Structure formats: C-alpha cells, structure tokens
Amino acid sequence: MCGIAMILGPEPDRAAFRRMIGSLAPRGEVEEVLLTSRLLAGTQRLRIVDGERAVQPFVSADGRWVLCYNGEVFNYRALQAELTSRGHRLRTDSDTEVVLEAFLEWGADAVRRLRGEFAFAVADTAAGRVYLARDPLGVKPLYWSRSGASLRVASEVKALTEFGAPVSEVPPGQHGWAEGGPAPAAGPSLRPYLDLLRLGADQPQIEDPAEAAKLIRAALEDSIRVRVDTGLTVGVILSGGLDSTLTLLHVREMHPDCVAFTIGARHSEDLAYARRLTGELGVPHEVIEVRPKDIRLADIREAIRLGELTEYGDIINEVVSVPLFRRIHQLGIKVVLSGDGSDELFGGYPMYFRASEQQARQLFLHKIRNLGRTELQRLDRASMGHGCELRVPFLDLSLVELAMRLPRALKLRNGQEKWILREAFADLLPGYIRHRPKDMMSYSSGLHERARLFKPLYPRLHRSFGYQLMEPVRRDFDSVLERCGHDLDRAIADSAARPDYNLAERARDLAGALRWNTVLAARALRGRG
Q1: Cα dist. 255→94, 274, 336 in Å?
Q2: Burial (CB count within 10 angstroms: exposed 0-12, middle 13-18, buried 19+), residue 263
C-alpha cells in the first residue's frame, strides 16, 4: 500500500510536487521519487510485498513506462507465472512489478485480470500521457486535477487542493488515458471496465437457501484466505458484531498470528461483546477505551482533515476510527482486516427492506457504487493515515456479485437482517453473536452522540482544508431516502437539489444531540455513584 503522486506536463513545478508527496507521508514508510523535465512521480510506500526490491516509481526495463501503484493484487503469483511463461523477465517477487508487466502484456485489458484492492497510474514517457485505473469497488482512492498544461494525480484530495483547480475522482471500476501537456481542460477519458449497476444481472438468481449458504461460505473463506497471505501479524477490527466476528473466526484459523482491536466507551456494547468473544477464543485483544467527553473540537477537526469525507455520518464514524488506527500504528501492525461491506451486500440496514420490491435491487447497487466515497474512503484515510493497510474481504468482487444474485427474501427473513449470512455460518457463530442485532459503529461504540454535537461545524471545517474543490459536505443519503419515502429516484434528485441541511433541520438535530448528551451524562454519574 502506498500514497501516490504525479505531475505530468512541460516544466512541472518541483516545489509544488514536494508538497504534494509530503502531504501523503503518513501513508507509507519510505518516500521514493522520480523527477524528470516532464514527469514528477513519487510514492510514500508501505513495504509489505518484497519490500526491499519493489521500489517505486517502478520503471520498465526499457525506461519508457513509469508506474505509481497503491494497493494489493492478491492473485499476483498466478499472474507472475503466466507472465513468465510469456517471456517476461521479472526482477522482483512483487505485485507491483506484476501490475506493470501485466499492463505491458495485455494493455487496458490487464485491469480485468487483477483481483485485489488497487489504484495506479502508468505514465508513458514517450507519448506524454498517463493511464489511470481503480479497483472495481473503489477500495483504494485515486484523484486528479488539471490546470493549464499540467495534469496532477494523487491518492488523496489534500495533495491537490493547493492548486485551486477542481478535483475529480477516478470512479470505482473505471480506467482510461489522460494527456499531459497542452490539452483541453476536460480530464481523462475514463470508461467503466465493470458496470457496478449490473452486478449479477447476467447470472441466474439463487433461490435455494442451502445452495446460497454453501456458495457464500466458500466465497468468504477464499476471500479471507488470500488476504491473510502474509508473514506479518494480522489485525482484525472487532466490534463484536456478526461481520467482524466472522472475519476474526476465519483469520484465527488461517493465520494464528493475529490480534483483535476494539474501540468504545467503557460500558458500550461493542466492548462487552468483543471481550467475551476474544476471551472464549483466546485471541489477543487490544481495547481502546474513549470517554465521550474526551472527544473535543480538535478531534473533529483532525477527523475531517484526515478523512476528506462529505457525509455527516461518515465524519462521525471517522472520529471514532482515528484513535483506533492510531493505536494499531503504535503497536506496529501493518495489515488489518475488517468486516465492512457486509451490510451493503446482505441487507444490514432497514432501508433495504422499506424500499419497494422494484427498487430494492437498485438501492443495493446504488449503495455499493457509492462505497468508494463513503465507508471505504473513511477506512482508507483512517488506516493509511496511520501507516496501516486495511483489507476488506466482504468486498471481494466474487462475493459482491454472488450477493447480488440473492433475492431480498434470503437477506431478510423472520424479521432478521442478513439472515442468509447468519445461516451460512450457524455452526461457527456463538449464539450471542448470531442473534445480536445490527447497530451502527458510532452508536454501538457509545461515542456517536458526543461527535454529533459538533455537526454544525463540519461544513466550515471541511472548507477550511479546501475540500470543497472535490465536493461539499452534504446530508446523509440514508436520511434523504427516508424522508423521500424510500423512493430511490426521488432521493437522488432531492440530494442534488438540496445537498445540505437547512436551518430548521440543523436546529432539530442539535436539540436532539444536546438531549442525548444530557441523558448520557446523567447515566455516567449514576454509574459512578
């Protein structure tokens, strides 16, 4: 995993590039750059696969092609063998080199062969252009901006704001070429190599619960297996809920050198469930206790600076995530797995079942398509901002496509959300985990209401970092959907017309936050008494 930065064009500004790459320093352990008269490229590299030889920017043997790469390709060994059989002479044992050589062998079609979580830029120094690509779900970020003759590419928005030009993302599942040098102000010519709104549409639905359970079980086991293929200690983010428990149960069996991490207020549900589970499993457990009153404006500001997030709920979750990954970094853990993404696949939120039958599938796909700018962006910034690589096994493409072939009736049954996932692993799950209802991270950690107090300040803090060049802070889509009667098309239109809360909505929200914080403070006093 890395932070990548690139400027392509005549006489690129080296001082500006140094500031770009410097802003990404927390993402890696070592800074590596390549500076020429038309290309400035660099990475902040977190050394995980062949750390000594996979130096970036990675340059092709003939010197023409320059790769800046962020992520992990989990099938790189199979691709390595195929490339070798086709005559490629590889210099390292890294997925970095495999990405470049695959591109040289198969061109733009190479991206369809990569199984992993990645974003990369390949500069063609002879033609003065760059190829950009991002993984299907948007686990890893990639942004660009341009003004005049210079094209700039980076892993985070903060690396691009000083130029004052609009910042755009490379959308999940898209790739294409961008010109460096005199060119129209329009950006790269990007196109999808995977249509996220048609996942599973060309395959038959799976109606039989036994068949669905068997396929889910095999897919998740395989997804976790490839993500723990490392000689490093593996961390697991554990809330004590269904998804993180399944992740920990599998990691424990496949990679015994693991440790669980849980954050929450002292008497929160997450800490109670996680302590019980790790005690029964005998897994080392790091608990990060945070008192609600310890969350201050400085913590909100840091979460916004780090996360670059644009929905209120994601910012609140980032406030909770920052101290979690800070502790992970302190312990020197560089690879971590989480259970994120499962709710979007298997119906962990009420919204999926309040929508009409006709729109339910479209809502699932809408949420999946937007994970890259919501949940996954939060995870990327919080983890990489502390030099840690987070892997999300529930968002392996094979598992996502499988989940989209399941009817809603298998995801919600007898009032139980994620029913088929609970059924698939019924023999592994303790009863108290299997029947624990879903709750949002910030709520179950006991820290949501404290962070909610600062919500009126979020937009101003967001603008103070220049992040409006990408997108302003906007209302949570879930709340818009609810107000629109769970009509997806209407909610999308309403979000575009009225992106932020009005004064009346904000006053109601603040009053609710004040009321809840008063209640929580009273409970804390009674507990001490």
Answers
A1: 21, 19, 12
A2: buried
Q: Could you state, in chain order, the average pLDDT of each consecutive group of 10 residues for the chain (529 residues)?
A: 91 95 95 94 85 83 96 96 95 94 97 97 95 98 92 97 96 93 72 94 95 98 96 95 97 96 90 96 96 92 97 94 96 96 95 88 95 97 96 98 96 92 97 83 67 92 98 93 92 91 84 75 62
| Separation of alpha carbons 208 and 313, rounded Å | 36
Residue type at 492 in one-letter notation? I
Exposed e or buried b per residue across 155-193, where buried means at least 16 C-beta atoms within 10 angstroms of its C-beta: bbbbbbbebebbbbbbbbbbbbebbbeebeeebbebeeb
Identify which of 252, 299, 302 has the alpha carbon closest to the alpha carbon of residue 280.
252
The closest of 232, 176, 271 to 391, measured between CA atoms, is 232
- Report the C-alpha gap between 254 and 507 in whole angstroms: 50
Q: Strand, helix or coil at 131?
A: strand
What is the phi-psi region of residue 5: left when phi exceeds 0, alpha when psi lies from -120 to 50, beta otherwise?
beta
Question: Cα–Cα distance between 310 and 282 in angstroms, integer?
Answer: 39
Residue 236: strand, helix, or coil: strand
Q: How far is Cα 41 from Cα 17, in angstroms, rounded to an integer?
A: 8
Global pTM reads 0.94
Cα–Cα distances in angstroms (integers) from residue 492 to residues 218, 377, 406, 512, in the given order: 35, 20, 25, 26
Q: Which residue has the tokens 């729109």?
A: 359
Indicate the length of the chain as a whole number: 529
- From residue 518, give the alpha-carbon distance in Å to each of 130, 293, 522, 523: 55, 12, 6, 9
Location of structure tokens 């496509």: 401
